[in-house]
DNA sequence: TGAGGAATAT
DNA sequence: CATATTCCTC
């Protein structure tokens, strides 16, 4: 008996990031380049238990005040949904909240939490056996859907890294979104750059096509990009709440091409919300989802 | 090797 | 069209 040396030692990076926020090192000598360390501490964590539903609305619908929800609960819920969406066979360990790995990114040894699992010491007779090795390999990931939220995070990270340092791997790491692969980011980045480039050329030129329903249109591109500024300190309070990272949304497995107008059914958003406290005028929106329709309409600052 | 990035593919 | 995958170069 004696298996599992490291209890929870998945991938270094992730662990590191989380460890940072966990540590109470207020050592901000002003040299910390890693804004990651800027992550809020446990005491600064946005109220997870904040009700997403306004009290008025809640009472109107007789919605009982949300039960105490801890980060763990939220995360767990997300994980639940997530896993059930893809396969539903991942026993969510309700021990600690951390970016679990629903599947491994690029062929990484699956960290066996080892618990109620049979230690398969290479079952020789597994010739035609059911390949339950669908853990990660052999199984194709569903298409990643870049929701406005995800994209927002993406833009935030990219803008903070600077166009120069914004490379897939780094972006992926800083986004720290479970399930996000380098390829995902690379692909998106490619398109994003294209968009930025195109926009830069038309900076203040050409009519803004009202058809800009593009995801990109929803998230303003940092001027530093369209422009050519070295690195203007564009402070941003990144609200990367450890433990409840936005779960990437996936579309349907394969076919389904969505015909021009009319929206497809699916509609699952992420359970995030308090990204960017809203002090900085970076994004502007903080809506909690964007499946069906969200952006086509401009933000209405409350009703006048 | 592995990663970035453009070119293709689906 | 939005992503994914491939291909090529460093």
Automatic annotation (TrEMBL):
Pfam families: Myb_DNA-binding. InterPro entries: Homeodomain-like_sf, LUX/BOA-like, Myb_dom, Myb_dom_plants, SANT/Myb. Signal peptide: none annotated. The keyword DNA-binding applies. Residues 138-197 form the HTH myb-type domain. One of its GO terms (molecular function) is DNA-binding transcription factor activity. The keyword Transcription applies. Residues 102-136 are annotated as: Disordered. One of its GO terms (cellular component) is nucleus. Its main location: nucleus. It is found in: Nucleus. Keywords: DNA-binding, Nucleus, Transcription, Transcription regulation. This is Transcription factor PCL1-like protein. The lineage of its organism: Eukaryota, Viridiplantae, Streptophyta, Embryophyta, Tracheophyta.
